[in-house]
Design a protein that fits this description.
Blueprint: E1 6-15, H1 21-28, H2 35-46, E2 53-61, E3 66-70, H3 75-83, E4 97-99, H4 101-111, H5 120-133, E5 136-138
Parallel strand pairs: 4-5
Antiparallel strand pairs: 1-2, 2-3
């Protein structure tokens, strides 16, 4: 039996534990993959993270089977969650709030598997850059 050939791959940002069928349908409909099965698998795997956005990389193979690879929530989502507010409408002009070093470290540790570094200090600098672009300042740093 020949190895499976990858037909299509897409990254979709969905609400954890409650994936939108319409969103899945837009991306996976043309591939012929079983959208309901993908939704069911995603919802079961992310049920513990309800209320968060959990990106998933969906790979569809030539036999219409799928493989799901889960990622960590987007950095901007984690920053907004830590702030309890949205980012600034005009970063650099209007402050949206501030993060403590402890909050920054916890976000960096959570994002570490998806970043191109294994060092927490470097990850903190990456997260701090995203925070700055959202109009968020870092206390003590």
């Amino acid at each position: 039996m020949p190895p499976k050939r990858r037909l299509h791959e897409a990254t979709i940002q969905l609400e954890a534990g409650n994936a939108a069928v319409a969103e899945l349908g837009k991306v996976l409909g043309p591939t012929g993959a079983n959208i309901v099965a993908v939704k069911r698998e995603y919802d079961e795997a992310t049920a513990a993270q309800r209320g968060q956005v959990v990106p998933v990389v969906v790979t569809v193979f030539d036999d219409r089977s799928v493989a799901l690879r889960y990622k960590t929530p987007p950095t901007s989502f984690l920053i907004r969650q830590a702030l309890g507010a949205k980012g600034s409408a005009r970063p650099g002009h209007i402050r949206a709030g501030s993060l403590t070093s402890t909050q920054l470290r916890s976000i960096a540790e959570r994002k570490l598997p998806d970043l191109n570094t294994t060092d927490v200090e470097t990850a903190m600098r990456i997260i701090a850059g995203t925070a700055r672009s959202m109009g968020v300042t870092i206390e003590g740093g």
